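G., the chain you wanted modeled:
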Amino acid sequence: MRDVVRASVVIGVASGIYAISFGVLSVSAGGSILQTCLLSLLVFTGASQFSAVSVISAGGSVASAVSGGLLLAARNGVYGLALSPSIKGSLAKRMLAAQFVIDETTAMSSAAPDQRAKDWAFWSCAVMLFTCWNLGTLIGAFAGSSIDPETFGLDAAFPVVFVAMVAPHLSSRSGRRAAFIGAMVTVALTPILPIGLPILLSSVGVFVGLVSHDGDNAPDHSLEVGP
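Predicted structure as tokens:
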């Protein structure tokens, strides 16, 4: 169990540092400290939070911000289905657990060998992540009014987050197809639609990318050098 706790602490601290940048950027984009902290408390999904704040800061509508955030958070529903057999207990406990079903807790729980280890891994990671994420958000929110994001390069956090999310999927043909279609849709619609909508509509690339032929999901090694 020590390894699980150690891993949870490392993940939590890293998440907390990342959350500081979210707090700074959210307040700099016009959000209050309370709004910023509530976003982390209630949403607790980094990618969706960054997406929503980026749309609002660019002048987009609340509807576009919420829609984009929900789209990014949809994967957590799949995680919930995967973890459902291993999260035991009352309805109240399972509803509480649902708040913490994200990438890290899913990975930690799935890697555990038995039910007791799965419970320990899920909840230890959940507690550390939730605590550090919200503490980091609070620190960043208080610092946001006195820090210029551009001075420290924090304004690059939004695009960096999404590049990091997309990069692993570009190793397959279907992933590259989806990315290309999404990019073309965004470029074509940006001049004529309100801010936030083109990116939301670019998700059509995901559905087209799913229609793949045999072998499309295999990594493409044509650009690799060496044996």
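The radius of gyration is 19 Å.

Shout if anything looks off.
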